[in-house]
Amino acid sequence: MIITLENRTADSVRTYFEKTNRPEIKQVLPQKAKNVEEALEDYEKTLLPNATSFGQTVCVDGKYVGDVWCYCINMDNEPNCMLSFCIFELEYWSKGIATTAVKMFIKNICAQYNVKIIGAFSFAHNNASIRVLEKNGFIVMEEFEEDGVWSKYLQYEC
Fold first, then answer.
1. Where in the chain are the domains?
2. pLDDT tens sequence across 33-63
3. Tens digits of per-residue pLDDT, 125-150?
4. How far apart, in whole angstroms, are the C-alpha atoms of residue 14 and residue 33?
5. % helix / strand / coil in the chain, to the nearest 5?
6. Architecture of domain 3-114
7. What is the mean pLDDT of the chain?
8. Is the pLDDT of residue 32 over 90?
9. Counting C-beta atoms within 10 Å of the first and last residue's C-beta, which end of the chain has fewer, N or C?
10. How far apart are the first and last CA of the chain?
11. CA 83 to CA 69: how far, in whole Å?
């Protein structure tokens, strides 16, 4: 199994939006964009100079299976950015793909953006995502309740 990170495109954004609107994904991953047009608009912003977000697609043996990205990139703040990821093809869950993709992505953004501290949020019930983050060196810093849902904030130092 060969895992690679590739450049996002408008087509991958459309696919991602469609695939992540399934109930299995929505229960573990909140979505900012309410429709595909908003998702494409957010993607277009990542292409601008001084963009504050950056993402890549996750491919397994050439098949697009998910995304990994950082947002709120700002070297004057701590953390310097926030990390998120999603493997949207359910048959690829629990195979170590997200763990490997996050590891590769962290290496990329630490070098490309010179970030020092990366933050991440996860629903407290999303044990798989929390485990991916912990395997990559993230430490749970805080657990909190928001709108009746428990979440965890984790942090990583490059």
1. 3-114
2. 788 999 999 999 999 998 999 999 999 999 9
3. 999 999 999 999 999 999 999 889 89
4. 11
5. 35, 35, 35
6. 3-Layer(aba) Sandwich (3.40)
7. 93
8. no
9. N
10. 27
11. 6
